[in-house]
Write a structure and sequence with these properties.
Layout: E1 2-3, E2 6-7, E3 12-21, E4 24-29, H1 31-40, H2 44-51, E5 65-71, E6 78-83, H3 91-106
Antiparallel strand pairs: 1-2, 3-4, 3-5, 5-6
Keywords: Plasmid
């Protein structure tokens, strides 16, 4: 099966966690997923940056899993961004993020 002229493989699931620091918290790829994120996505850190608007960082503890990103590894197209309910800022913020990611992939 082909997608966009490329052979289709299984999507990758990339996990995002919160890490607490002296200034609050930052979002980052789970260490085991960082290399896959860099290989699968055109700009993995831009996606992390976009997640800040959808995640309520006041709810996180150090190391909490806050989101899962599904992507096609060869094309870098994001299939879905799943923000865990307990860390979502709001449903509308999560939906805005999904629409933004979909628009970027469509370009």
């Amino acid at each position: 099966m082909q997608r966009g002229g490329r052979l289709m493989s299984d999507p990758v699931r990339l996990r995002v966690r919160a890490r607490r620091n002296q200034h609050g918290s930052v979002l980052e790829w789970v260490p085991e997923d960082e290399a896959d994120a860099k290989a699968a996505l055109d700009s993995p850190w831009a996606l992390i940056r976009d997640l800040y608007g959808a995640i309520d960082r006041s709810t996180v503890a150090d190391g909490d899993l806050v989101a899962v990103v599904e992507a096609w590894p060869r094309s870098g197209d994001v299939i879905d961004v799943i923000v865990l309910d307990e860390h979502a800022r709001s449903e509308s913020a999560t939906e805005r993020l999904r629409m933004q990611v979909s628009a970027e992939v469509a370009r």
